[in-house]
Every structure is written in structure tokens, then in C-alpha cells.
């Protein structure tokens, strides 16, 4: 039991995800862009991605993933909702209160966290802080993005990469020794490189891919090492690394530099592309549904994104109830 003196730990007790049903294969993009299936597959690992229809908002994706996570947790007693998103539906207000309201949470703290593809790890750290300070006992943490809105329709560098989706976890107050307890968090940023991936107000995303690639590999390797060391583990103790899905070659390079083989790397980019803040919880939900991630596994979550931002944490995977049955009141698919 947690004593009044020890801050409670944040323990994962629910997991859910949502994807728009429309899969766009590389061949469909080739009809509109000067690109080809082989280039996209070999340079990024992406075969297809999910793209939401025009009327679907970040809020819609977040609600679907949040509902699945709440259902899997078996609780609706949530005192805070933290939404990581790069694509809020409005300049103001934040998207989180609307998501909370649609989930029936109208007396709940709710706010957005903006750290692009690192957003979910930043949101986990924020939620863990709310739990540690006893501001909330249970927090719904959602990562949701409509990243496909950001590239210019004729930009072959960015359009094949970015896609739409959402994932969510429920964190409850608990003990640091329990399965599901989040380990120490490592977060960082370096705004001197903000121009490497940037979307100006009202404009399209601009990316300097190769330089961003190098930073991604360096930062993901070092932040993984730091989080694993703070948890008291060694790299070889990691059963599964769940990296942000930016490019299969980035994940492979991170694996090489840390000596984590493909069998220990969770990868779903081939079918979902880069879904921004949704990427890590979506990969976790798919890996836990297909048995790639199992209860008792030592997991490291590692993210990198525009900003630049990066972050990592560890967790021993808990035994969760899956929320596999799709609701008929949502147009989203649950992975
Ligand atoms: O989630 C946030 C973090 N995101 C990232 O970290 C993304 C990091 N960067 C990347 O993933 C890669 O840099 C890209 C996938 C964006 C690009 O791959 P690359 O291997 O770095 O290619 P490149 O930009 O060096 O371009 C190589 C060639 C160029 O042609 P030339 O100059 O060699 O003739 C490009 O014009 O590939 C060309 N090219 C393409 N060709 C066909 C670039 N995009 C395409 C395309 N189809 N879509």
C-alpha cells in the first residue's frame, strides 16, 4: 500500500485505440504524386495508412480511443483527461474538454498537451504528476492526431508519411512495484532545431527529412538508455521497445545502436504510417491485441518529434481486459 508520505505511482489499467476505416495504399498516392510504391516501402516501411474522411475531427478519433480505454479499465471515475495532439480542432478552446464531455465527463479537468510526436509520453508524464500530487486518482490519457491534414497535397516528401489515428490509456493511482506502474520519465527538447519539421499558422508542413532522421536516431537511443538506467534495468532486460513510428529505418537504426533486435521492436508503421501523438498508444494497443506485448514484458516507450522533443519511460506490462468489441455508435475501427 502507498503510504501518505510516498507519492502514488501511475499504473496503466486500461488501453484502447481507434483508426479511421479507410486504408490508403501507396498505389493510391502514386496516382496523385511523383512517387512510387517501392520508394515509399523501402525508404519508410509504409505500405498503407489510415486517412479519416473530411468531416472527421481529432475529437472524434480521441473519443473513440478514449471510450475503448475506459471500457478496458472498467471504470468511469476519471478526474482528469490529458489529450496529446498536434492537430487540435480549434485554436481555442483545447480539444480535451469536448472529448471529456462526449465521454460523459463534464466535471473533469481536461486539457491538451502539444509536443507533436512526443506528445503521448509528455502526456503520460503530466498525468503521472497529477496522480503523484493527488490532484487526480484516475486519469485518461489520449493521443489523437489528424496528421494527414498537415502536408501540402502535392508534397511527396511528407504526404506519404503522415496519417490519422488515436490511442489511449487509463492511469490509476497505485504502487510503484505493481505491474503497469510507469517508471521514471525522461523528457527533453531542443528548439534550436525547430525548423527541421514545422507547420506555420495556416500553412503546410515543411520537413528536412535526412537531418531530422539523424536527430531522431540519436535522441531515441540516448533517451531510451536514460529511462532504462533510471528504472534500474539494462538494455538487454527490455522485452519490447515501443518506439514512435516515424520511419521503419529509424526504428531499425535505433535497434542497431541499442542492440535490440527486430523481434523485440514493436512496429506497425507499415499499415498505419506516422500518426503523431497517437503512434505509441496505437502501436501498444495493436501489439497487446496480437500478443506481441504480453503481461510481464518489460517495455520501454520511446518517442521523438518536432520541436525537437523526445521522451521515454518504462513499464512492466500489466494484464489488461481488452476492449475488442466495436461500438456501433462510432465510425472508427478498434484495432
Ligand atoms: O515523426 C517526427 C519525426 N519524423 C522523422 O523523424 C522523419 C525523418 N526523416 C525520414 O523519415 C526520411 O528522411 C524521409 C522518409 C522523409 C526521406 O527519406 P530519405 O531516405 O532521407 O530520402 P531523401 O530526403 O534523402 O531523398 C532521397 C531521394 C531524393 O532524390 P535525389 O535528390 O536523390 O534525386 C528525393 O527527391 O528520394 C527523393 N524522394 C522521393 N522519391 C520518390 C523524396 N521523397 C520521395 C518520394 N518518392 N515520396
Topology:
Blueprint: E1 9-18, E2 23-25, H1 26-30, H2 37-44, E3 48-50, H3 58-73, E4 80-84, H4 96-102, E5 109-113, H5 119-132, E6 138-146, E7 164-174, E8 186-189, E9 197-198, E10 206-207, H6 209-230, E11 240-243, H7 248-258, H8 269-272, H9 279-289, E12 298-305, E13 309-316
Parallel strand pairs: 4-5, 4-6, 11-12
Antiparallel strand pairs: 1-7, 2-3, 6-7, 8-13, 9-10, 12-13
Helix pairs in contact: 3-4, 6-7
Bound molecules: oxa(dethia)-CoA (UT7).
Quick gist of this model?
This protein is of the alpha/beta class.
Kindly describe this structure.
The structure is a single chain. The chain has 335 residues and is of the alpha/beta class. The protein folds into 2 domains: 9-178 and 324-330, Thiolase/Chalcone synthase (Peroxisomal Thiolase, Chain A, domain 1, 3-Layer(aba) Sandwich); 186-316, Thiolase/Chalcone synthase (Peroxisomal Thiolase, Chain A, domain 1), CATH 3.40.47.10. The protein has helices at residues 26-30, 37-44, 58-73, 96-102, 119-132, 209-230, 248-258, 269-272, 279-289; strands spanning 9-18, 23-25, 48-50, 80-84, 109-113, 138-146, 164-174, 186-189, 197-198, 206-207, 240-243, 298-305, 309-316. A 5-stranded mixed sheet has the order 1-7-6-4-5. A 4-stranded mixed sheet has the order 8-13-12-11, with helices on both faces. It has a two-stranded antiparallel sheet with strand order 2-3. Strand 12 (298-305) and strand 13 (309-316) form a beta hairpin. Helix 6 (209-230) crosses helix 7 (248-258). The longest helix has 22 residues, at 209-230. It starts with 8 loop residues before the first strand and ends in a 19-residue tail after the last strand. Residues 324-329 have low confidence and may be disordered. The chain binds oxa(dethia)-CoA.
Amino acid at each position: 500500500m502507498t503510504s501518505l508520505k510516498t507519492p502514488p505511482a501511475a499504473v496503466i489499467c486500461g488501453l484502447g485505440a481507434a483508426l479511421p476505416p479507410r486504408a490508403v495504399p501507396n498505389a493510391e498516392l502514386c496516382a496523385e504524386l511523383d512517387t512510387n510504391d517501392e520508394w515509399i516501402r523501402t525508404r519508410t516501411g509504409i505500405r498503407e495508412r489510415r486517412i479519416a474522411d473530411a468531416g472527421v475531427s481529432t475529437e472524434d478519433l480521441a473519443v473513440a480511443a478514449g471510450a475503448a480505454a475506459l471500457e478496458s479499465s472498467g471504470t468511469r471515475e476519471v478526474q482528469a483527461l490529458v489529450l496529446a495532439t498536434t492537430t487540435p480542432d480549434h485554436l481555442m478552446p483545447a480539444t480535451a474538454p469536448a472529448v471529456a464531455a462526449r465521454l460523459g465527463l463534464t466535471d473533469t479537468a481536461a486539457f491538451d498537451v502539444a509536443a507533436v510526436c512526443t506528445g503521448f509520453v509528455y502526456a503520460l508524464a503530466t498525468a503521472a504528476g497529477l496522480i503523484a500530487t493527488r490532484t487526480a486518482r484516475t486519469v485518461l490519457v489520449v493521443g489523437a492526431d489528424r496528421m494527414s491534414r498537415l502536408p501540402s497535397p502535392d508534397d511527396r516528401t511528407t504526404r506519404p508519411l503522415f496519417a490519422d489515428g488515436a490511442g489511449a490509456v487509463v492511469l490509476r493511482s497505485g504502487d510503484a512495484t505493481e505491474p503497469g506502474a510507469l517508471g521514471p520519465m525522461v523528457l527533453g527538447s531542443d528548439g534550436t532545431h525547430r525548423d527541421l519539421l514545422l507547420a506555420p499558422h495556416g500553412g503546410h508542413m515543411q520537413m528536412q527529412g535526412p537531418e531530422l532522421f539523424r536527430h531522431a536516431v540519436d535522441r531515441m537511443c540516448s533517451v531510451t538508455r536514460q529511462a532504462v538506467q533510471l528504472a534500474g534495468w539494462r538494455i538487454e532486460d527490455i522485452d519490447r521497445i515501443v518506439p514512435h513510428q516515424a520511419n521503419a529505418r529509424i526504428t531499425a537504426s535505433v535497434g542497431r545502436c541499442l542492440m535490440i533486435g527486430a523481434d523485440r521492436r514493436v512496429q506497425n508503421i507499415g499499415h498505419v504510417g506516422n500518426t503523431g501523438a497517437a503512434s505509441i498508444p496505437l502501436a501498444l494497443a495493436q501489439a497487446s491485441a496480437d500478443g506481441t506485448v504480453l503481461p510481464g514484458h518489460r517495455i520501454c516507450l520511446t518517442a521523438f518529434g518536432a520541436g525537437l522533443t523526445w521522451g521515454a519511460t518504462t513499464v512492466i506490462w500489466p494484464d489488461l481486459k481488452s476492449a475488442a468489441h466495436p461500438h456501433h455508435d462510432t465510425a472508427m475501427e478498434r484495432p
